[in-house]
Design a protein that fits this description.
147 residues, Rossmann fold, alpha/beta, 4 helices
Length: 147
């Protein structure tokens, strides 16, 4: 299943049919948004084609909550947050979703597994070389060229 399919099923359908005000998108960094440089102490800063433009558009959408999903060390996370902010990309949280919590007797337990609607993760099959353009085109088709 492609991430485009996931966006259609887990973002657009719930927003329209269920009246949700937003969905939660977890975004891995290495080999997903940024091309790895494999250098300790020097975070990679080269985006995959269309990743930057897509994340800049997602940042503007009020019905999308971007969450950084990374195994980076805390000091690197701070560097990444600064880097992305300088590139007009805002992540609301890192490795957590405090907006969806466990409701005793409710449907799910989110104590250790944060709730997400869409996942961009190379280890889950996302192909950063080819899929960013499809995501960008889907968003432009549904939201227009600018927001």
């Amino acid at each position: 299943m492609s991430v485009v399919h996931s966006i259609l099923v887990n973002h657009f359908i719930p927003i329209k049919r269920k009246g949700w005000d937003k969905t939660f998108w977890f975004i891995d960094l290495h080999s997903t948004v940024l091309i790895p440089n494999y250098q300790t102490g020097n975070i990679p800063t080269e985006f995959y084609p269309y990743a930057k433009e897509t994340l800049q558009l997602l940042t503007k959408l009020p019905d999308v909550c971007l969450i950084m999903y990374t195994c980076s060390h805390p000091h690197e996370i701070e560097e990444y947050l600064t880097f992305f902010k300088e590139n007009d990309i805002n992540f609301e949280y890192v490795n957590e979703n405090p907006e969806v919590t466990t409701d005793i007797g409710g449907y799910g337990c989110y104590d250790k597994k944060p709730y997400m609607n869409v996942l961009f993760e190379d280890k889950a099959g996302f192909d950063a070389e080819t899929e960013w353009i499809s995501v960008l085109n889907l968003l432009k088709e549904n939201y227009g060229e600018t927001t």
